[in-house]
Structures are given as structure tokens and as C-alpha cells.
């Protein structure tokens, strides 16, 4: 499965270099892309700045180019990997809790409740891990 991100959201996010909301932006873009069935391209390339001789990562999203430093690129990569892993976990919950005797709406309500509990638990684990790193 390819992770497809909304072009404007990803480019704006990278240009602003504000990584605090990366997960929310990536999840929102992924949901919109899945719902709309849109497909975009993302190309990555490692380069060295001719001015500073520092390594940079060049990101091309549907023809719009962004350059970020390698630390930021690693953070974005980590956030994308985490978002993909969490999307897969959510899909597993939906599939595992699917009951053929229930209507699609009932299945969604039941699995949605479980997903909220799972996400809350995951958020608690994240907070604990973050506090232990400081």
C-alpha cells in the first residue's frame, strides 16, 4: 500500500518546518486521499547544497519542490512510518471486530468505539514515552 498525501498539506507542512502537527496532517491527508481515490506522486532525492556543502533532502510533490535538512527529513520519515503503522493497526481493529451478523453501521459503531479506546491507550503510552525521554 502506498501512502498518498495531499500535496498542499504536505508542502505547506514542510515549508513551515513545523513538525509538531505532522501526524495529524498526515492522517488527515491520507483519509482524504483514500475517500477521494486520488493519486499523486512524491519523489525524494538526497543532494548537497552548492552554497553550504551541507546535505539536504529534496522532496518533489506533484512538481512542487521543497528542500529540508537531513534532521527534518528523518523526523518526517519517522512520522510517516508511524502514521502508516497506526493506519494498519486501525485497519486490523476494524477487520478483527467485523461481525457478519451486524449491519455496516453497527459494525462501524462497535469497531469505532474499540478504536477510540485503542487510540487513547496508544496516546497514554506515547505521553509516558515522551516524558521518560525528557
Order of helices and strands: HHEEEHH
How many helices does DSSP assign? 4
Number of structural domains: 2
Which spans have pLDDT < 50 for at least 5 consecutive residues?
Answer: 1-5
Anisotropy-based shape: flat
Helix content: 55-70%
- Number of DSSP strands? 3
Q: Record the strand order, biggest sheet.
A: 1-2-3
- Main pleated sheet: 3 strands, antiparallel
Sheet-strand content, in percent, reads 5-15%
**Terminal-residue CA separation:** 35 Å
The average pLDDT is: 78
Gyration radius, to the nearest Å? 18 Å
Which class of secondary structure composition applies to the elements? alpha+beta
Protein described:
The protein has 134 residues and is an alpha+beta fold. It has helices at 7-16, 22-36, 70-96, 104-133, and strands at residues 42-48, 55-61, 64-69. The longest helix is centred in the C-terminal third of the chain and has 30 residues, at 104-133. The model is unreliable at 1-5 (pLDDT under 50).
Summarize the structure.
The protein is α+β, with helices and mostly antiparallel strands and 134 residues long.
